[in-house]
What we know:
Elements: H1 4-21, H2 24-28, H3 38-59, H4 72-80, H5 103-118, H6 120-126, E1 133-135, E2 139-141, H7 143-170
Antiparallel strand pairs: 1-2
Helix pairs in contact: 1-5, 1-7, 3-5, 3-7
Amino acid sequence: MPTNNQQAIALLHKYKELLISFSEEQFVQTPPAGGWSYSEVFTHIIAANDLAVLSIYKCTRPSEEPYRPMDWRVKLILFFGALPPGKYKVPSILAGKSIKCSKEEAAKRMDSLLKRMETLSEKISEASKVAQVKHPRLGYLNAEQWSRFILIHTKHHLKQLARIKRDFNTNS
């Protein structure tokens, strides 16, 4: 069975395929009902996953921090592989990073993210289960949990991209 990291990489390749399907105008256009454009979803996913990858690397270093047990709600999210329904406010660490950019810029940033993620599998498996880095909403996660979060969060935003497409199709 593929690892969370391998599944997330495959999912990000789907994002790249989607990116090719948009015209430049479609990519940056705000949906009729408001909210993020395709471009803003892409920059959010890339920025969030960049931070998660950095957290995974931090989890591979020795730490003097005490282990912190996980809240039961976070365990459910990681177990079921999905965020609860609803809209979420972007954590302050990512505020202002969900910006419009060109398809070319998104593709470059996605390629860079994919390269970093492709080097992670071994690091994740070697990381201590007690080395943790704090997630802005979920609390302290270890490398494997961060990898699982990348997959869950990336899947979550695929649903958002589908909603944006429906919004455009309904209003055309």
